[in-house]
């Protein structure tokens, strides 16, 4: 006991000193389990950013450093885990929601002025009387013309809260003075179903460009329209569809599959499995379906194609799909930004993953398209590389493969005449759209008495119009563009663009598809049934 009494003051002193030292290091906003644990990796990152913000010799935008850091981390995970900066969140949310609040016009900036290409059918501008060719000069007293005005600023002035009103001043050719319109803003759909029409007396066609919140509702309306027109078979076009919401893909697959058929299952890092089955609500379970896919059909598009193929429902037509079998969840980062993080893999009903490898890095992953092109896979199905160890069998005895996309039942090579680089460049840069708009500006009334279907079936684009397009390119293109070998294809694009600007709502697809070899193949398959 004397020994303990002798050293007690020393022990108490050390304990008090240690307590003061530890207390100075603690953050009392932390939870108890963090008080006695550290994460040196997180602390290192936070400390580095603090050093740069407070001690670095020059002023640095640390927000941009954080963005770079987040992107760098995600780049080392997988190709589909992505960062969404806060300035992009509104746009991304609109695209996925499938609508926005606005005045309902399709426009582009023509000679520093907003030129209306078309007022959206039944939208607020159409109801107010705004027409294609009108120039919107002012909105609530603010000018909307001039070289310094950017498209983003224009859109901000035309958007607003639902049911709010905006006063527009509009120039219309032939009118002696500016016209006044008051437009009440409303919800404007961002269409994810581009077209729904009949290819033959029994074969309907519906094209889905992405899987947004509104897609199933649009799809259902399209299917009902086609059934009313006598469709007993459906062509579901998922070409160039990058995907979207998993649940929407499940709903669309459900329309074609019998009750209790497995649509897909997902598995996370802990091995937890969630299965999705078809319900009794499918309205096209008895009809035949052809699903069109290509090298740009990804994610949710592959879910639909894989679910139907693995259940021996219908026919998959086209080329091997993209090969994305990862599921992302959007997670808020607290400052208005978000991350879409891969949280599981999905598998088709037979148990195959169609995710292609990404272990060589993101660059190799995204360059795989060019490898497919170089080895001739887009022209010859025998050039498709398959892994025999990833072979699966459907209930009907069909052999299918995992490891990288959905391989179609019926292969259709890429059509180089309609998808060559020159035509793609002209379409992507808006040359067709701008040229057609200027042609319509000369005299829109030429087309007033031509019904939509008559135009689609019978209208011929003259050689003179093609030569005028060449002259137009010579004046405006950055480099010389010639299309001597694609004269007829250019005619088709001009006609399709004319149809779009005159009639909207799927007219482009109806015209363009008249020269589509994959559509021709589907019609042939349908006639053989």
UniProtKB/TrEMBL annotation:
Residues 89-144 form the PDZ domain. One of its GO terms (biological process) is proteolysis. Keywords: Hydrolase, Membrane, Protease, Serine protease, Transmembrane, Transmembrane helix. InterPro entries: ClpP/crotonase-like_dom_sf (IPR029045), PDZ (IPR001478), PDZ_sf (IPR036034), Peptidase_S41A (IPR004447), Tail-specific_protease (IPR005151). The keyword Hydrolase applies. One of its GO terms (cellular component) is outer membrane-bounded periplasmic space. The chain crosses the membrane at residues 7-26. GO terms for molecular function: endopeptidase activity; serine-type peptidase activity. It comes from the Bacteria. PROSITE patterns: PDZ (PS50106). Belongs to the peptidase S41A family. NCBIfam families: prc. This is Carboxyl-terminal processing protease. It comes from Flaviramulus basaltis. The lineage of its organism: Bacteria, Pseudomonadati, Bacteroidota, Flavobacteriia, Flavobacteriales.
């Amino acid at each position: 006991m004397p020994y303990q009494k002798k050293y007690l003051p020393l022990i108490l002193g050390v304990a008090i000193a240690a307590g003061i030292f530890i207390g100075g290091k603690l953050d009392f906003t932390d939870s108890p389990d963090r008080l006695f644990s550290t994460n040196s990796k997180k602390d290192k990152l936070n400390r580095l950013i603090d050093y740069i913000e407070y001690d670095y010799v020059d002023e640095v935008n640390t927000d941009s450093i954080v963005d770079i850091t987040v992107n760098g981390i995600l780049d080392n995970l997988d190709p589909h885990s992505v960062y969404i900066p806060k300035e992009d969140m509104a746009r991304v949310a609109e695209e996925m929601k499938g609508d926005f609040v606005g005045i309902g016009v399709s426009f582009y900036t023509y000679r520093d002025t907003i030129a209306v290409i078309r007022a959206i059918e039944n939208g607020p501008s159409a109801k107010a009387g705004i027409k294609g060719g009108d120039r919107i000069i002012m909105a609530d007293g603010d000018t909307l013309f001039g070289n310094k005005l950017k498209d983003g600023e224009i859109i901000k002035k035309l958007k607003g809260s639902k049911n709010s009103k905006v006063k527009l001043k509009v120039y219309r050719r032939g009118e002696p003075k500016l016209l006044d319109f008051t437009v009440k803003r409303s919800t404007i759909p961002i269409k994810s179903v581009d077209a729904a029409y009949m290819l033959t007396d029994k074969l309907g066609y519906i094209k889905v460009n992405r899987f947004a919140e509104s897609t199933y509702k649009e799809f259902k309306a399209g299917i009902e329209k086609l059934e009313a027109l006598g469709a007993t078979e459906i062509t579901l076009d998922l070409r160039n569809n990058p995907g979207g919401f998993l649940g929407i893909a499940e709903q669309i697959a459900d329309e074609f599959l019998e009750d209790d058929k497995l649509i897909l299952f997902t598995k996370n890092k802990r091995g937890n499995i969630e299965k999705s089955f078809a319900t009794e609500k499918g309205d096209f379970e008895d009809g035949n379906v052809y699903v069109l896919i290509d090298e740009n059909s990804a994610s949710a598009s592959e879910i639909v194609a894989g679910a139907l193929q693995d259940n021996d429902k219908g026919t998959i037509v086209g080329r091997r799909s993209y090969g994305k079998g990862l599921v992302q969840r959007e997670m808020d980062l607290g400052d208005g930004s978000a991350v879409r993080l891969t949280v599981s893999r999905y598998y088709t009903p037979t148990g195959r993953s169609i995710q292609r490898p990404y272990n060589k890095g993101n660059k190799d992953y995204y360059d795989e398209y060019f490898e497919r092109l170089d080895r001739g896979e887009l022209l010859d199905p025998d050039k498709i590389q398959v892994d025999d160890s990833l072979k699966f069998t459907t209930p009907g005895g069909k052999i299918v493969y995992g490891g990288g996309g959905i391989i179609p039942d019926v292969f259709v090579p890429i059509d180089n005449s309609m998808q060559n680089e020159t035509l793609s460049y002209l379409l992507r840069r808006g040359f067709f759209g701008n040229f057609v708009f200027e042609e319509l500006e000369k005299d829109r009334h030429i087309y007033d008495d031509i019904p939509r279907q008559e135009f689609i079936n019978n209208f011929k684009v003259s050689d003179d119009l093609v030569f005028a397009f060449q002259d137009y390119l010579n004046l405006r293109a950055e480099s010389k563009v010639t299309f001597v070998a694609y004269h007829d294809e250019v005619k088709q694009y001009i006609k399709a663009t004319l149809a779009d600007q005159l009639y909207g709502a799927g007219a482009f697809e109806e015209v363009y598809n008249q020269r589509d070899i994959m559509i021709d193949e589907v019609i042939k398959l349908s006639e053989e049934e």
